[in-house]
Design a protein that fits this description.
Elements: E1 6-10, H1 21-31, E2 35-39, H2 47-50, E3 63-67, E4 77-82, H3 94-111, E5 116-120, H4 129-132, E6 136-141, H5 154-167, E7 170-173, H6 176-182, E8 189-191, H7 198-202, E9 220-224, H8 233-242, E10 247-251, H9 259-262, E11 267-271, H10 278-283, E12 287-290, H11 304-311, E13 316-319, E14 332-334, H12 337-348, H13 356-363, H14 368-382, H15 385-388
Parallel strand pairs: 1-2, 1-5, 2-4, 5-6, 6-7, 7-8, 9-10, 9-12, 10-11, 12-13, 13-14
Antiparallel strand pairs: 3-4
Helix pairs in contact: 1-14, 8-12
Length: 395
């Protein structure tokens, strides 16, 4: 290998969790020959209170970078770093974040001694930069981080994000609202929306039905994704009550109170399922659903699940947002449970939002490979000439 730099992706989510944007970036860049170090999202000493499974892990010891399963193509490398537990309240007190990032920097430097390119996805990474001195930093902004609930000092997170933008050569954003949010802080803010692994989800048309769906009668409405505070459980419950003969199947990890759904006989919570098996679930869904509450945070979300549903050839009912209005030609946008049920009835009678050919043409332009073309172009552009020609591994 002649890889001259290591690309460090500091993610908000663990590699072993639900597959998301940073997973796709890391895998695709490694396939193209990059040396990628994926750093799991931070956990603190309080994390086991929310996720008891973490108690089985020694939080004092980092899991040294491990080789992932063989890459499909290319001669790059992808390793995963699960850092030691950090101090809680890093988004409330700057001195805590500085301590945590210094601790993380030492673990990253233990994993590689090469020059670094830093692709962070959380504002707190601004305090990682002084300890790593990367060749360049490129911030990937995927959410309005200061608007999350919990232990968050809004002013602090906004300050860290602003400073991270100042320290970055390029800022990527997933949504128009995020572009407007970041434009005052950087002159080069690039829109790189989410996407789908098209070939993977296209198999939903031909794969076998997932065994967990066999005992759930048709018709089925499916939701795939994390069940957090951002999901509109009231809307889903109302739909289920208005159409008791239709089954509502939710596939994804639970991060919030879903008690509003527990008493409904036609709502089925199947939990987190392997990414490779998602097409088998989509095969069994007559309609797919994206239901988010309406607030400033969700208005800036560009949902991955939308692209995956469409790639599977499904009709998609989605709660309206400013971001999704741009996809109006392929989505059934709704503002209430009544509108959602009306759309559901029309779909079940055979109506489609657009033709299958038009949907397929739209999907063909929404691949992760196309998105990574944009990311990789920026990565190569910020490298010094002496490193640029060696940035990828020799084939």
């Amino acid at each position: 290998m002649a890889q001259s730099v290591t690309l460090v992706v500091t993610s908000a989510v663990p590699w072993q969790g639900a597959t998301a944007r940073p997973h796709h970036f890391a895998k695709e860049l490694a396939r193209r020959g990059w040396d990628v170090l994926y750093v799991n999202g931070p956990i603190t000493w309080l994390s086991p209170l929310k996720n008891p499974d973490l108690l089985s892990r020694n939080l004092l010891l980092p899991r040294l970078p491990i080789q992932t399963p063989p890459l499909a193509t290319g001669s790059g490398r992808l390793r995963i770093l699960a850092p030691v537990a950090s101090l809680p309240f890093g988004n409330m007190h700057r001195w805590i974040n500085r301590f945590n990032q210094r601790l993380l920097a030492s673990q990253i430097r233990f994993a590689t001694d090469k020059p670094l390119l830093l692709l962070p996805m959380l504002p707190g990474a601004v305090d990682l930069i002084p300890h790593l001195t990367p060749v360049a930093t490129l911030y990937d902004c995927v959410d309005l981080h200061s608007h999350f609930s919990g232990f968050v000092n809004t002013t602090l997170v906004e300050d860290m994000e602003r400073n991270l933008a100042y320290a970055s050569r390029v800022v990527f954003v997933t949504a128009i609202a995020l572009q407007e949010h970041m434009n005052p802080y950087h002159s080069d803010v690039r829109l790189v929306p989410n996407a789908a692994e098209i070939e993977h989800f296209r198999t939903a048309k031909t794969v076998n039905l997932h065994p967990l769906l066999r005992d759930i009668p048709e018709p089925r409405v499916g939701f795939v994704g994390g069940l957090g505070a951002w999901v509109d459980y009231a809307l889903i419950a109302d739909m289920a009550k208005q159409r008791p003969q239709i089954q509502f199947v939710l596939v994804g990890p639970q991060h919030a109170d879903v008690s509003a759904l527990n008493s409904l006989h036609n709502v089925h919570l199947l939990g987190l399922q392997p990414y490779q098996e998602l097409p088998q679930f989509l095969r069994g869904f007559d309609v797919t659903l994206h239901a988010f509450v309406r607030n400033e945070l969700t208005q800036s979300v560009n949902p991955i699940k939308i692209y995956e549903y469409l790639a599977a050839g499904k009709q998609v009912i989605a709660t309206t947002s400013e971001e999704l209005k741009r996809l109006d030609e392929v989505l059934w946008l709704v503002n209430s449970s009544e509108e959602a049920v009306a759309a559901l009835d029309r779909i079940l009678t055979g109506e489609t939002r657009t033709s299958a050919a038009a949907q397929a043409e739209y999907v063909s332009r929404q691949s992760w490979s196309a998105r990574v073309d944009q990311i990789e172009s920026a990565l190569l552009a910020v490298l010094p000439t002496s490193l640029r020609d060696q940035a990828r591994a020799d084939a």
